Amino acid sequence: MKERLLGIKSSFCAEVGRIGSIEELEKLRVKYLGRKSDVVDVLKSLGKLSVEERPAVGRLANEVRDFLVNSIEKKRYELDLKDIRTRIQREKIDVTEPGREFCLGNRHPINSVTRTMCDIFKSMGFSVVDGPEIETDYYNFEALNMPAHHPARDTQDTFYINDNLLLRTQTTCVQVRILEREAPPVRVVCPGKVFRSDDVDATHSPVFHQLEGLAVDRGVSFSDLKGTMEFFIKELYGEGTKVRFRPHHFSYTEPSAEMDIQCFECGGRGCRICKNEGYIELFGCGMVHPEVLRRCNIDPEVYSGFAFGIGIERAAMGKYRIDDMRLFYENDVRFLRQFV
Ligand SMILES: [Zn+2]
Q: How far is the CA of 68 from the centre of ligand 1 (A)?
């Protein structure tokens, strides 16, 4: 019996040295101290021994059991400590390590110039409104004085969804929606996407941006339009920017004009960008056609107004001296990063 107990102790000592994890240690504990272990078996069979042998063997059996229990606890403590040290090592934060650089995005030049333009008009008392990109034939054409068979309705230029729905070809449709809803005085600008079935080149794109403006009140005159536009251009491009108005035709304004700014590249002497004109066409404008007002139940004898539509890409090209519109849509970060 004594030999058996000493054999258990020495085989335990050999095994415990090889234990490397808490799981293995638990298996070892079950093997040596579990209900079916040899030590328990010895303790159970003490009763079969003679009265002389029993105290000595009993003492030894208890000593061996206590030794096993203590050794396992000691090993558990060592393993826990090792585990904690490994975790500390793994989760260590090196406070001297330089921080990782992260990239901040910046506004797209189109968004940036749109905001600037809206801010200029807001400073003059205009509010910014929005309208649907999918429009009905009525708002895109008919209400703007372009009845069926009007040349501006050429299907070559318009993306139709069905007979009645289309992708708006200008932001001017928002004017009608506003005038139907609000009684004068009205002063709004509406930036947004417009769609034409154009091929992509340096100055054309099937999707581009416009900023539409409308002011309707009693006694609004063409000189109000001119003054507003000149103020806007000087705010956007600088005090010394020269502008000129040329007569033009739009179905929804009468009289109508186009406004040009002096070429930002050559200062009016003539160059490739302005096609030797010295001026660059920037937007169309005019006095709201009485028929458009009438359709919105506004009496053209009492109220008058002006409207304008600015190509935002063209305005941004002038502001940032960009000579190819495609750069706006290619998402090349080397280009976009310049507009921080
Ligand atoms: Zn020029």
A: 97
